[in-house]
Amino acid sequence: MLHAKSAIVTGSTSGIGLGIATAFAAQGADVLLNGFGDAHEIEAIRRNLEREHGVRVRYSAADMSKPDDIHVMARYASAEFGKVDIVVNNAGIQHVAPIEEQPDEKWDAILAINLSSAFHLIKAVLPGMKARRWGRIINIASAHGLLASPFKSPYVAAKHGLIGLSKTVALEVAEHGITSNTICPGYVKTPLVEKQIADQAKAHGIAPENVVRDVMLVHQARKEFVTVDELAALAVFLSSDSGASMTAAALAMDGGWSQH
Ligand code: NAD
Hints:
With 260 residues, the chain is of the alpha/beta class. It has one domain: 3-Layer(aba) Sandwich (Rossmann fold). It has 8 helices and 7 strands; from the N terminus they run βαβαβαβαβαβαααβ. Helix 1 (15-26) crosses helix 8 (228-239), helix 4 (104-132) runs parallel beside helix 5 (153-173) and helix 6 (191-204) crosses helix 7. The model has no long low-confidence stretch (mean pLDDT 97). The structure holds nicotinamide-adenine-dinucleotide (NAD). It is an enzyme of class 1 (oxidoreductase). This is 3-hydroxybutyrate dehydrogenase.
């Protein structure tokens, strides 16, 4: 479905981003991986994707908190693939604490990585997308882009902001064959959430084993984690030609949480 397309997926060495990058490669797209982790493991992922799917897969260690890194990464993807058709702004971090205890540097880092990085990358790739009259921008927000939970002030602020950014971009570029949408997942069991279970236990003063049942899935009506594969399938649809009219949307995939 994505043959001859090329994509940048930020934060794709783990979790949701890796799932989306894998699904894109399986659909025939060249993919630029990005994110942190063990260099040998990342190289093994890169080679496996190339071997299994017969596409070009590259890697950039760009730090999404650094605008200069983001521009270098975008230029690298363009040079390697000849163009960038699809961008998934997925890289994200979390820090759970009451607002008086949120360290200033966590606020700055979460806003930079979860929100400002999307602005910088969109700005870098739009001229090429406009020139080719085709582009897909997918922003991975969260149910926390649509609603709030206590102890997540920078994350909720950044994710609400990401939806606003995505809608604004969508309106600006709609006549250029470019869409911009936000996916708003409920809880997905990735390393980011594994860490939160311990953090939430501390913030709420409850046992870690009760966090999943009583905090994370309490409003997720389906009482199941969302899966990476489900999210990747939505990203593939948004990236396809069939997604042309879906733009400026904030798409909840949260087991009913945001309608509770
Ligand atoms: P994860 O921790 O498994 O993966 C995060 C990825 O981002 C990793 O590849 C990591 O290396 C990368 N990353 C972190 N900081 C970076 C930086 N400064 N520069 C470049 N890359 C960086 O997390 P995940 O659960 O897969 O989350 C992915 C996205 O989905 C995040 O934006 C998160 O907010 C969002 N999300 C996750 C859930 C969930 O329940 N897991 C729910 C809603 C939204």
